[in-house]
Specification:
2 copies of one chain form a homodimer. Chain A is of the alpha+beta class. In chain A, about 25% of the residues lie in helices and about 25% in strands. The radius of gyration of chain A is 23 Å and the shape is globular. Chains A and B meet through helix 1, helix 2, strand 5, strand 9 and strand 10 of A and helix 1, helix 2, strand 5, strand 9 and strand 10 of B. Strand 13 of chain A pairs antiparallel with strand 13 of chain B, so a sheet runs across the interface.
Chain lengths: ~400, ~400
Amino acid sequence: MKKYLSLACVALCATTAFSQQALWGDTPLASPQINSDNTVTFRVKAPKAKTVKVTGDFLPETVVDIPNYGKVAAPGQADLVEKDGVWEYTTPQALSSEYYCYNVVIDGQKTIDPSNVYINRDVATITNYFIISNDKGDKGDLYKINDVPHGTIRKMWYDSPSLGMQRRLTIYTPAGYETSGKKYPVFYLLHGSGGDEEAWYTQGRISQILDNLIAAGKAVPMIVVMTNGNAYEQATCGESPAGFQQPQMVMGGVKEGMKEAAFELSFPDVRKFVEKNFRTINDKNHRAIAGLSMGSFHSEHISKYYAGEYGYVGLFSGSSVGDGRRGDGKASTSPVYKDFDKQMANLFSAKNKPALYFVAIGKTDFLKKGNDEFLAYMDAHKYPYEYLETEGGHIWRNWRIYFTEFSQKIFK
Amino acid sequence: MKKYLSLACVALCATTAFSQQALWGDTPLASPQINSDNTVTFRVKAPKAKTVKVTGDFLPETVVDIPNYGKVAAPGQADLVEKDGVWEYTTPQALSSEYYCYNVVIDGQKTIDPSNVYINRDVATITNYFIISNDKGDKGDLYKINDVPHGTIRKMWYDSPSLGMQRRLTIYTPAGYETSGKKYPVFYLLHGSGGDEEAWYTQGRISQILDNLIAAGKAVPMIVVMTNGNAYEQATCGESPAGFQQPQMVMGGVKEGMKEAAFELSFPDVRKFVEKNFRTINDKNHRAIAGLSMGSFHSEHISKYYAGEYGYVGLFSGSSVGDGRRGDGKASTSPVYKDFDKQMANLFSAKNKPALYFVAIGKTDFLKKGNDEFLAYMDAHKYPYEYLETEGGHIWRNWRIYFTEFSQKIFK
């Protein structure tokens, strides 16, 4: 046979004409460029723009005043400077070992860095990301993919009779699960409002963290179950029959008309599914539950309402809403939320006491005051707990730290 | 206890300040807006821009002249019109039931639609996407998530001794796999150059297509294995120890210095892993292989070099490079590529003959001529095959059609 068009040429056209554009249309700039001294340079081609800024969690926080809400910490911004149609900014200092996310703002419109293909979606928020690592075992090294045995991430669906729907969850199984024949402990890991079943796997970097901790012998092999805490939806936006709606931010995780504590009351559906579909060790000492923000609220109530089922409890950046209050702070008659004192006493009874009750929050978290009062309540009742306080506020940087700490303390 | 800050408020801050921006900073515009008549409106806020265009596969193709390469079909562009700082374009006609992708071009810079959180990365190319469906069972209905039983998608790693590395793959198992105890046929599905182990799962929509076809009884439950055909890399960019490099487009799938036919020669590693880790039916009649473009090349050579192992072969938008030619068209001494006639004769011998040899290509595919000559070769040797010719070129729209057709013909 004669030689036809070579596959090298096929290569150039294989993905769709979009790729051709990427190849020949506009050569991507090096952005972000991590320099040898760990400063980072951002570049945006926008010849006709008036202003180009970068906003990210590596810049000093500013405070924004939110209409009808008040002042909230927000990531800082830095101005890029234009030369020959390319705007550029280099961080004045080296960035420490960490996972960072950012956006660019062109003439006031927040968007992504057109040269950076690494994008994370957190429900309604699109950000670019990059990692600074120093190979000293610091956070960046823990959050990146190293050449260690890797676990498996499953995106699968379970049936929730309580909520009357199929629902999606994300499950991490440790390296070797498929062939070991062994049974494993299970860690139920819950997201915050405005998050979903993908949050801990994407911004949380939990599969990278656990692969690395388990390979180093610092965490025991475990199954991690990340379900969707928004009881009214089947799955994250765009991954359910609801289609590609504009994501709406979530107020609490239940909606008007839903049964109070709908998620907490449906949680046995998740456990039942996991214990039927995976090789799990089904006792209190091999079952953990933790969550961030709304997920902390869920973990607090699930751990006491189903007292004796979870031997390890983690409350990250949370704040109890107290006796008889539901997620949005309104009065509730749900058995899940009422009789708070009685349920807490039952949780910390000799029979049900968790091996670890772990509370963590940032010094500038807007929930710090509520968390302090919760700790005062714990102290007043002599309920044992471990407490971790970090710098910063209600941010993923802290949740990755809390996950890293908590996951090394459980099932040991 | 007193009432603390309600979780409703936690909700507003739970994800990071980025989400606050999404909430309060800039209200996203409705874009894309699918109108009741299935026309689509795109909106971009860019008060200071000089020009804003949309480019997508729903617009008439244009031809771009690529330096040192020649003319290639590219997606058309349409101009948005500015009013009060918001640029807008509505398609003149209703769009048919289909999965579409697009970008916006602001002052010549290709980027995403800042209001559309639905983004697909195809190696170096970022596009927004949306689906038009008409609930008549057309393509859009097949490509969207419906309320049917859902399979599981696994992102996992296998060991490839031949390539000396851990490598990542994506695996679809049908609904019920986890608990059925049954064994399943396996479909090995290969991507094109410039693609990776995520391509068929993202732009290919294969988990939605199979969930829907299996639920309708049109395809049999099967395991689909999507490996990475670029033999020099462990995983898609950003998902391997190589880190977040700027993705380079792939020339063929091997690199200088690598063993010729490295991917084909390492393919038994994939099969071995799958058959060890999953409940598979291990015979020719329950094993299929197909791929697009470079993946068609791989499927063609793997099916004949390992004659008798794959009972169903699919060549999508491919072009044989003929006797003794490797992927980039250069001469090869690899046993995989040489003795083409002999290997084909062996493949179509009574003992090894596939139950289905399926060839599909688009009328305007730049590989059409090569494919025609390959079919002439098949005819001259009286090798049986099924042929599907569609409108359009070397694009995902066709590959979704070919997958849909092929997956309904196999294992029956």
